[in-house]
């Protein structure tokens, strides 16, 4: 009989755990397995108390202890569940802040040299800011994207160049933005996107997602 109980208990935990398996979020599996295990413990305790000739007091105390243990376990799991999701949200926020700073740093390397050249040029050889940007970063532009040396490959920078305005639309393909359904310039959705607008007056940044 003991082997039967062991097999039943194992199945009540393992089967729900596997049915709700999620490689991204382990909590559905943990919760399903925990519910199955809790139900097994309750059935097992009541079965043992029903089959054994314990006094009424012993049975009441045993049931009370079992219920307290179950409630304590549920509270503990709920706390861990909330804490893990809070930490996940906090890590996303930190990663987004880091990504925003790195995107700004990428933009500095692309827009500051043309801006400096624009203001240092002589009036007789006046060239628009867009042409100077293109001449300065020509080797960095490939297939419609700017590539910044020594920066991570998951940063996509798409330039839009006119004579008077250069707009860099920058996407961090890892960091999450504010809106999950936001369509990014590189074809992804919900990622951090920042634009840097270069004019003769300077550079303006705008977080788009």
Q: Which stretches are low in confidence, meaning pLDDT under 50 for 5 or more residues running? A: none
**Helix share bin:** 55-70%
Count every beta strand, where a strand is a DSSP E run of 2 or more residues: 6
Number of domains: 2
User: What Rg is obtained from the alpha carbons, in whole angstroms?
Assistant: 30 Å
Order of helices and strands: HHHHEEEEEE
- The shape, in one word, is rod-shaped
User: Helix count, per DSSP?
Assistant: 4
From the helix content, strand content and strand pairing, which structural class follows?
alpha+beta
Going across the biggest sheet, name each strand in turn.
Answer: 3-4-5-6
The profile of the biggest β sheet is: 4 strands, antiparallel
Overall mean pLDDT? 83
Spatial gap, N to C terminus: 60 Å
How would you characterize the overall build of this protein?
With 209 residues, the chain is an alpha+beta fold. It folds into two domains: 89 residues; 111 residues. The chain has four helices and six strands; from the N terminus they run ααααββββββ. The strands form two sheets. A four-stranded antiparallel sheet has the order 3-4-5-6, with helices on one face. Helix 1 packs antiparallel against helix 2.
């Amino acid at each position: 009989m003991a082997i039967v109980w062991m097999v039943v208990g194992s199945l009540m935990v393992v089967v729900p755990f596997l049915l709700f398996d999620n490689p991204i979020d382990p909590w559905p599996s943990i919760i399903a397995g925990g519910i199955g295990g809790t139900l097994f413990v309750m059935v097992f305790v009541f079965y043992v108390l029903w089959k054994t000739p314990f006094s009424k007091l012993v049975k009441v105390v045993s049931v009370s202890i079992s219920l307290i243990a179950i409630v304590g376990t549920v509270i503990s799991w709920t706390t861990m569940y909330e804490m893990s999701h809070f930490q996940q949200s906090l890590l996303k926020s930190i990663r987004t802040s880091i990504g925003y700073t790195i995107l700004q740093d990428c933009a500095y390397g692309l827009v500051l040299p043309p801006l400096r050249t624009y203001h240092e040029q002589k009036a007789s050889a006046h060239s628009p800011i867009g042409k100077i940007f293109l001449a300065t970063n020509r080797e960095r532009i490939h297939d419609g994207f700017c590539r910044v040396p020594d920066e991570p490959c998951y940063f996509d920078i798409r330039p839009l160049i006119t004579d008077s305005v250069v707009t860099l639309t920058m996407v961090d393909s890892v960091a999450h933005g504010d809106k999950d359904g936001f369509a990014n310039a590189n074809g992804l959705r919900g990622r951090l996107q920042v634009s840097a607008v270069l004019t003769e007056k300077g550079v303006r940044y705008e977080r788009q997602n």
